[in-house]
Amino acid sequence: MITAQAVLYTQHGEPKDVLFTQSFEIDDDNLAPNEVIVKTLGSPVNPSDINQIQGVYPSKPAKTTGFGTTEPAAPCGNEGLFEVIKVGSNVLSLEAGDWVIPSHVNFGTWRTHALGNDDDFIKLPNPAQSKANGKPNGLTINQGATISVNPLTAYLMLTHYVKLTPGKDWFIQNGGTSAVGKYASQIGKLLNFNSISVIRDRPNLDEVVASLKELGATQVITEDQNNSREFGPTIKEWIKQSGGEAKLALNCVGGKSSTGIARKLNNNGLMLTYGGMSFQPVTIPTSLYIFKNFTSAGFWVTELLKNNKELKTLTLNQIIAWYEEGKLTDAKSIETLYDGTKPLHELYQDGVANSKDGKQLITY
């Protein structure tokens, strides 16, 4: 019998007020044929996790008494990396020691162990398997635990909607220093797409511009330049020299920033909005719709992949290959080890409180 712990909530509210740790038992001696027991290696704190707890996120985990609570409670966490420790007699695709991630959202990853069926998980190569396959690098816990959202979001936005011609066409994005922005710059370079990253002005601007260009951004501009009509001809000249077009914009800011990147697109351009960090509405001039046949759409990786395990697996395989080849750099997390000295939910509450300092990852 395994005594496991999970972070739960019975009522929506602020994480500091509603989270608690619940102990529950997993009978590892009486597995059903298709069941799998996993232990957690790491799980991050994402903005969507916080919003789910607050009750303001569209996708929410179901509440259950399956963890042994008297009142129905929901598990927290969507991303996480697990190691298989035991499988049922009919499970052929997984074995003890394999690394896996949840195949669906709302699995509940803020926990020490989990019991599921084999189709609840997608296998990732563990470092020993990568080495055995001749790969120069194995996945780190941070790469595995954070692979499902940011790198997949960047890759799918760049490849799933618009056909960009390698070596010629451009995409432009705001939030260039965000995790998704950095992944998009890197993936754009790997796919030979030209890119413009828009970032806020700052004291160490030259240093940040250099670091983003080293990651893969073709050009980096400030929000002032993004909103400047005088700077527009410079951008047009960059695009003209490549012989391509600016076909795609990636918006995670909203407000004036989204208007600026939309204006940079050529005719028939598409802007995908996947966030709204400024809390300002996306405002698009009517003329772009009429005279440039501009299209604005939303992107939510959860919805896109919800019923498409094949697309998720194909995308994961590409990201994994780049990680193993050392071609893709992950966004580093601030890691905190769970050693049992504090209740598990307090580590995640601390992670929520410290999330403005960078992505928080609880490791086990």
From TrEMBL:
InterPro entries: ADH-like_C, ADH-like_N, ER, GroES-like_sf, Mito_Enoyl-ACP_Reductase, NAD(P)-bd_dom_sf
Tagged with keyword Transit peptide: yes
EC number of this enzyme: 1.3.1.104
One biological process term in Gene Ontology: fatty acid biosynthetic process
One Pfam family named in its UniProt record: ADH_N
Superkingdom classification of source: Eukaryota
Cellular component terms per the entry's GO annotation: mitochondrion
Subcellular location: Mitochondrion
SMART domains: PKS_ER
Catalytic reaction(s) noted: a 2,3-saturated acyl-[ACP] + NADP(+) = a (2E)-enoyl-[ACP] + NADPH + H(+)
Gene3D superfamilies: Medium-chain alcohol dehydrogenases, catalytic domain (3.90.180.10), NAD(P)-binding Rossmann-like Domain (3.40.50.720)
Ranges where the Enoyl reductase (ER) domain occurs: 13-362
Keywords: Fatty acid biosynthesis, Fatty acid metabolism, Lipid biosynthesis, Lipid metabolism, Mitochondrion, NADP, Oxidoreductase, Transit peptide
GO molecular function annotations of the record: enoyl-[acyl-carrier-protein] reductase (NADPH) activity; trans-2-enoyl-CoA reductase (NADPH) activity
Record-linked CDD domains: ETR (cd08290)
SUPFAM superfamilies to which the protein is assigned, alphabetical: GroES-like (SSF50129), NAD(P)-binding Rossmann-fold domains (SSF51735)
Broad class of the protein's primary localization: mitochondrion
Family according to the record: Belongs to the zinc-containing alcohol dehydrogenase family. Quinone oxidoreductase subfamily.
UniProt protein name: enoyl-[acyl-carrier-protein] reductase
Lineage of origin: Eukaryota, Fungi, Dikarya, Ascomycota, Saccharomycotina
